[in-house]
Amino acid sequence: MYQEWQPGKNTRVAIWKVEEPESFFEAQTGLQTDKKSAVRRLEHLAGRFLLQYLLPEMSLDHIEVSHLGKPYFPGNGPCFSISHSFPFVGVAVAPQAVGIDVQTLQEKIVRIQYKFLSPEEQALCNNHAARITLAWAAKEAAFKRYGLGAVDFIRHMPIRDMQVEGKGAVMKMEFLREEPSVQIDLHGGIEADFAWSVTV
User: Residue 67's CB: how many other CB atoms inside 10 A?
Assistant: First the structure.
């Protein structure tokens, strides 16, 4: 376990650093996956393992996947979100819709930031790779939270404010894919190897 915390009364979040072999997660979850890539298999199984850790009362066999590829428990089951960026896996669970994203830090993101950040957002990040990665994670977390598909990350999800203090961050986003628009509060952080963000 890399980190585990409770950002709200009924919301739990955990991040795991994968150092175990595939057989460990298969034994712990009773699952197997047919994904071709060894890394993708590890990410999938580790995500289910971490979900099982946070929600031991729920059966992984009950998970269904929406037409947009979003896993969920049918009926009135708890909501959850899973993210992976090897070797890190993050899971958030809550009574209501929730989104989490983790992204490993890579300097090349500076070169492609224009693809998902407006000029105003780029100014907030100041060409700082970790902040750009944090902004990307925030947009991915919001995308997963709302699960609407067909979202333009620049036009529909502008980050209006980003406050980074130490390892922690608080961001405000306007979600324009909804009518009327929705104001979103996001929490996040920048670690040595990755950035993460969560929204409920």
Answer: 6
